[in-house]
Amino acid sequence: MFSNEARTLVNEKPDRPLRPGDCATAWIGWTFVLMFCLVSASGVELEEARKKFIGGDYGDCIRLCAQAILEKERDEEWPILLARSLLDTGKYPEAQTSIVAALKRSPYSIRIRLIGREVCLHNGQREQAAALLREINELGGSRRWGYRDPANLVALGRAALLLGADPRLVLENFFDTAKKADPKSREAYTASGEVALAKYDYALAAKIFEEGLKQFPEEPDFHFGRAQAYAPSDRPEMIQALETALRHNTNHVPSLLLLADHLIDAEEYAAAEKTVAKALAVNPHSPEAWAYRSVLHHVRGEPEGEAKAHQQALAHWNTNPAVDYLIGQKISQKYRFAEGSGYQRQALRFDPKFLPAKIQLAQDLLRLGEEKEGWKLAEEVYQADAYDVAAYNLVTLQESLAKFQTLTNDEFIVRMSAHEAAVYGQEVLQLLGRAKTNLCQKYGLKLDQPTTVEVFPEQRDFAVRTFGMPGGAGFLGVCFGSVITANSPASQAANPANWQAVLWHEFCHVVTLQLTRNRMPRWLSEGISVYEERQANPVWGQTMSPHYRELILGGGLKPVRDLSAAFLTAQDGEDLQFAYYESSLVVEFLIKQFGLERLQQLLAELAQGTPINQAMEKRLGPLDNIERDFAAYAREQAEQLAPGLNWEKPAGKSLVEDEAGWELLHPNNYWTLIRRGKKLIAERNWQEAKAPLQKLIELYPEQTGADNAYALLAAAHRALGETEPERETLAKLAARDPDAVEAFLRLMEMAALSQDWPAAARNAQRLLAVNPLLPQPHRYLGRASEEQGKREDAISSYRTLLLLDPPEVAEIHFRLARLLHQTGDPAAKRHVLQALEEAPRFRDAYRLLLDLNRPGAP
After folding, report:
1. 826-853 pLDDT, tens digit each
2. With b meaning 16 or more CB within 10 Å and e meaning fewer, what string describes 171-187?
3. Model confidence over 710-754: pLDDT tens digits?
4. Is the dihedral angle over the CA atoms 344, 346, 348, 350 positive or is it negative?
5. Residue 446: Cβ within 10 Å count
6. Does the pLDDT of residue 41 top 50, yes or no?
7. Distance (Å, whole) CA 133 – CA 11
């Protein structure tokens, strides 16, 4: 029937199977209650009861099912629907009583046994649950002919999964077969989608549930499954799916709890508490709901409430590993990995084979820097379940990390690919050292252990190390407290970000997270890091832009108390970046208004477990006043952006009907000027394009980004052969934009042609801070250093350049040989020979070789 591994479980001697007579007394009492139902079950349609269940009218569903059973309806759907309704409303003992009676009437039903297993677990009867699973296996093997209908195929498939069967074979041989036989099989869609979710195949899960919704558009379970599929990648879509599920069934507990989960992530704890309360009103004994309530007490610093809620979650099944797993997972998502790992260890004490807790513990430990045990646990999960995507990803990642080179000093452990470590590894250590000196001193932190920094040339590896799964596009780095993961410039395609700013930002997280014991809201953590970027280098970090100005003055500013949610509900990348910017603006405002010392006191208050709003009230004053004053500060900053510009945004119709008239009436309008400049550039009308672009720069000199007028004006100057104006324009952009790669490249080229070696070196350094894996900045820096007599710097640049496989390799070997010869280094001969190997007719290299071979030459 099932796999060999499943058969091993089946052949174990049962402790004691659940027998129909076990609860005879209770069944008599239950029958007595049912006899008082007022409406006759005669003629009651099963579909009516199912509609009651789907719509969340569980009381009526229970009544109709009980009536049908009393009237000796033989369809096994009745007791199954009854048991589901009783489970969903927390009537666990009653559900068990009903299952005992149902098995007495239908002794060969595997579907009743399957839900009976769930009922037994909710009543804390693990042995009886295991016995029912073994009975399903035995019946499926001996009476296979009796279970070929779609509903029973799904039940057999679910049992096979529980017994360790291959998920792919189960999907193909059971669930897919059931769907082909009956395209309207709810159970087949639900089971298939749950397998995809369990294996982290979210795209497949979304597809399955969307197919199910074509058959059953009002099925809340399918909307809920779709919400689960979108939860990791698209929170707005997830919320929409949950709203739809709850519109069809306001009592749908799984949807309520997933919504509460989201609200906890968004730090909207009051709203999460209300949502959990709604779930408990439906099922007062839901272990998941009590687990979420325990999490809420934990994040609010209420240990007594946390313990009581935890006890309630285990009230009916006191060794339920899913409870501690869920609590620990949510706490770890708050970056409290030490506390979260404690819950996972408890879950594994309840059930050492509970793999979700084991893989979560593995990731917690890896994020805490406890790598030996973390990797060991990941390997154990992979060996137990080769289809666990998270475990497979981690085991594969470990193989990649083993090839990394480790650079160390007393303060940092830096892991990079060997190639990248050779190119700029020492610069990474130096940058981190400066960040540590600056930020630890500023915030009064003494680190008692080295910080681990891992830089990944493959974005997928970064995502697996950081999130456990591929994805996470847009993240440049993440800090867990004492461990930093970062994307290298090699993983960032054509538009890499300034790696120095990224690492400074992430090390600031090291400081603030450790100061607060990882007990700070996301907005404050990100806000301080972006703010400190600007303090370290004025061109780092985010600044006011036309888009941000429009959002702030147009009502897009989020209240401070809701800022963390903005990171989750952002509709696109621009919205997400605005969340970072607004958070940094709040920090800037708080420091200007109250001073750095008060901010430090706020961080210390958070470390004691005080919730953020209470901590702000205590250390900074009434939150309503802060909200009011910050909104005024943000508006002031927005209004100060290029005050000489007119910022009225023209409607499309205005330009279409009277473009010339609009421009005449709005000569200094930002949108008109940038639009006209871009249009003229596109038309290659270089001369006329200069006027609107020059005016835009004059009125808005601090602009950067994709639509900046500097780059457009420089293009016009270049096309017209106006070299000096082009250089001046690009120099202004380079001084303002830390990621202006094209400007840096052009300025180096122009500086070399004019032999302005200080300018060449300056722009080479700027480009190296963005992408040190490009050969050009090393080439120009080497030449500039050589021309300025900085021999050691030139040697270092040329040696690095050779690691990047430059096209002019012979010339680089020659220049390096000449410099080494000047220092008396015997390695000069090796390099001149390599130059000749690449270019056998290289006359200057022959002359240098002759010079090296003179008597007395080094």
Report:
1. 999 999 999 999 999 999 999 999 988 8
2. bebbbebbbeebeebbb
3. 999 999 999 999 999 999 999 999 999 999 999 999 999 999 999
4. negative
5. 7
6. no
7. 11
What mean pLDDT comes out for the span 99-118? Answer: 95
Distance linking the first and last C-alpha atoms of the chain:
80
Average pLDDT on 284-313 reads 96
Residue 164 has pLDDT above 50, yes or no: yes
The whole-angstrom separation of Cα 375 and Cα 62 is 48
Rg for the chain, CA atoms, rounded: 33
Asked if residues 260 and 283 have their Cβ atoms less than 8 Å apart, the reply is no
Structure tokens at 412: 């940092």
Predicted confidence (pLDDT) at residue 318 exceeds the cutoff of 50: yes
Using an 8 Å Cβ cutoff, are 576 and 537 in contact?
Answer: no
DSSP-derived secondary structure for 39-106: S--TT--HHHHHHHHHTT-HHHHHHHHHHHHHTT---THHHHHHHHHHHHTT-HHHHHHHHHHHHHH-
Instruction: Looking at 369-492, list the stretches that DSSP marks H as alpha helix, in order from N- to C-terminal side.
Output: 371-384, 389-401, 418-443, 459-467
With beta carbons less than 8 A apart as the criterion, state whether 279 and 286 touch.
yes
Q: What is the pTM of this model?
A: 0.86
Q: What is the DSSP letter of 854?
A: S
Tokens of 794: 């030139």
In degrees, rounded to 5, the angle at the alpha carbon of residue 18 between the alpha carbons of residues 12 and 24 is: 165
Give which of 483, 507, 502, 581 is closest to 771, Cα–Cα: 502
Mapped onto helix, strand or coil, the DSSP state of residue 847 is: helix
CA distance 771 to 764: 10
Helix (H), strand (E), coil (C) string for 161-199: HHCCCCHHHHHHHHHHHHHHHCCCCHHHHHHHHHHHHHC
Is 452 within 8 Å of 413 (Cβ atoms)?
yes
| Distance, CA of 374 to CA of 661 (rounded, Å) | 68
- 659-674 mean pLDDT: 83
* Neighbour-count burial of 854, counting CB atoms closer than 10 A to its CB (0-12 exposed, 13-18 middle, 19+ buried): exposed
pLDDT at 142: 83
Query: What was the pLDDT predicted at 658?
Result: 63
Q: How far apart are CA 225 and CA 681, in angstroms?
A: 50
Binned at pLDDT 50, 70 and 90, residue 10 comes out as very low
pLDDT tens track for 468-505: 877 777 789 999 999 999 999 998 877 788 999 999 99
Q: Which domains does the chain have, with CATH numbers?
A: 403-515 (3.40.30.160), 543-641 (no CATH), 643-737 (1.25.40.10)
Give me 9's structure tokens: 């479980």
Structure tokens at 406: 């480790």
* Averaged pLDDT, 620-637: 96
The single residue listed with the structure tokens 């789907």 is 54
Q: CB neighbours (10 Å) of residue 93?
A: 15
* Helix intervals (H) in 300-370: 303-313, 321-333, 337-350, 355-367
667 pLDDT above the threshold of 90: no
Query: Which helix (DSSP H) or strand (DSSP E) does residue 477 occupy?
Result: strand 477-479
How high is the mean pLDDT of the chain?
A: 90
Query: Which strands form 412-416's sheet, in the order they lie side by side?
Result: 405-408, 412-416, 451-456, 483-487, 477-479
Q: CA nearest 470: which of 539, 366, 396?
A: 396
Cα–Cα distance, 391 to 371 (Å, whole number): 14
Name the pLDDT band for 857 (thresholds 50, 70, 90): low
Residue 594 corresponds to which amino acid?
A: F
Q: Tell me the C-alpha distance between 767 and 78, whole Å.
A: 71
Q: List, for residues 271-282, the tens digit of each pLDDT value.
A: 999 999 999 999
* CA atoms of 241 and 220, how far apart (whole Å): 9
